[in-house]
Each structure stands twice: as C-alpha cells, then as structure tokens.
Design a protein that fits this description.
This protein is of the alpha/beta class and 166 residues long. It is built from 5 helices and 6 strands, in the order H-E-H-E-H-E-E-E-H-E-H. The strands form 2 sheets. The chain has a 3-stranded parallel β-sheet. The chain has a 3-stranded parallel β-sheet with strand order 2-4-6.
C-alpha cells in the first residue's frame, strides 16, 4: 500500500494566471495582446469569416418550408397484421393503441396506413382501423382482409370521430 502512486503525468497542477512575470502566466495571462480575444467572453464564432459575407448568406435560399404541414407516422399493413397476430392491438385500432403497442413513436400526431406487405394477405378479420390517411393499396388490402377502414382528419381524437359516426 505504501508504494501506490498515480501514473506519471496523471495529476497536474491547475494553471494559475495573473501572478506576475516570474510565473510565466503574468501580465496578459496567456491571452496574447489586446483585442476581442483578450477580453472576457471574447469568443469569435466558428462561422465568422473576418467581416467577409459569410457562407450561409452567400448561398441562395431554396424551396419553401410549410409550417402548417401535417407529418404522418407511416405504418405498413404487414406490421399492423403482425401486431394483431401477436395480440398487441385491440379490436379498434387507432393512434393511441398504436402508440401503446410501440408501432408509432409517442410524439406522433397523425398516422398513415401504407400498403406494403410481405406477399401474404394480412389477417385483420373483424378489426376497425381508424387512421388519418391511407394509400389506395392499403385500402384494398384492408378490405380484402375483412377489416373496416375509417379515415378521420388529423388532430381529431378517434373516440370523438367514432362517436360522431354513430
């Protein structure tokens, strides 16, 4: 125990600045001469190009970003059928039940049913699917599988939509 020591160079003294010329870190305290970088908080951002028009302003703007767009969480029919076979979903399949089953992310506000399958027809017999959107191929597959598909606008809760339709 008496021979235990940290490795060479493992423990280093803290750099003490502003303690006179003899310390090696006196006067300007290792900051060089005058100017912005010598001051407290005088950091120059990486994007700064010395007053030249910066790259992000030289490049033209492209396209348009619609702030009101609806972003759908996609879900394929075969994934839905696998979850039904594994009995992860109730009789009425809506956004909330998909979130609980882990098929769409919890932050999703709307979902779209897509028609990709692994080749076999899915088993969705007697199920009611309440989606915000669906592709034409997904509609055909769902109807062929014996399920009903109801489309509701995004932002409307499935329970409200079902209550209004009855």
């Amino acid at each position: 125990m008496s021979n235990l020591r940290p490795n060479r160079g493992a423990n280093r003294r803290r750099k003490v600045v502003g303690r006179g010329i003899g310390s090696g870190h006196g006067k300007t305290s290792g900051r060089g001469g005058k100017g912005q970088t010598a001051r407290t908080g005088g950091k120059i951002p990486a994007r700064f190009e010395g007053g030249q028009t910066p790259l992000y302003r030289r490049i033209p703007k492209r396209g348009f970003h619609n702030p009101f767009r609806t972003e759908y969480a996609p879900l394929n029919v075969d994934k839905l059928a696998q979850a039904v076979v594994a009995s992860k979903l109730p009789e009425t399949i809506d956004l909330e039940s998909l979130k609980k089953a882990g098929l769409v992310r919890k932050s999703a506000l709307a979902w779209k049913l897509l028609g990709k399958t692994s080749g076999t027809t899915p088993s969705l017999q007697g199920r009611k699917i309440v989606a915000n959107a669906a592709s034409a191929s997904a509609r055909k597959l769902v109807e062929a599988a014996g399920a009903t598909l109801e489309l509701i606008p995004p932002g409307v809760k499935a329970a409200k939509a079902v209550a209004k339709s009855q």
